[in-house]
Amino acid sequence: MAKLNDTELAAALDSLPGWTLVNGKMHREYAFADFVHAFGFMATSAIAIEAMEHHPEWSNVWNRVTIDLTTHDLGGITPKDVLLANKLEAIAQKLLG
């Protein structure tokens, strides 16, 4: 698997509302209704994350979850990060909607 080039990365970010590039990583912050929804997002996402064997850098403070994605062993963003971002986005939208 190769890192995304600038054009591929821009297209990926354009297709993922709310995701940006911060410090060379795909970045997203979610604000849920409360801690239970934020933790529910993380717990539900953990199943998909573990199945992919691709773990994000993420943190939770009350109703907020902050996520950074990169493929550490390749030193940048790969299609695996984009796939995980799409999965996380789908899970989040069910809890935000």
Structure overview:
By secondary structure, the protein is of the alpha+beta class. It has helices spanning 6-14, 35-52, 79-96, and strands spanning 20-22, 25-31, 57-61, 64-69. The chain has one domain (6-96): Gyrase A, domain 2. Helices cover 46% and strands 22% of the residues. A four-stranded antiparallel sheet has the order 1-2-4-3, covered by helices on one side. It is globular and about 35 Å long.
Overall number of domains: 1
CATH architecture tag: 2-Layer Sandwich
Give the DSSP E fraction (strand runs of 2 or more residues): 15-25%
Question: How are the strands ordered across the major sheet?
Answer: 1-2-4-3
Assign an overall shape: globular
Number of helices: 3
Instruction: Briefly note the structural class of the backbone.
Output: alpha+beta
Largest sheet: 4 strands, antiparallel
Could you state the order of secondary-structure elements as H and E?
HEEHEEH
- Let me know the number of strands: 4
- Flag low-confidence runs: none
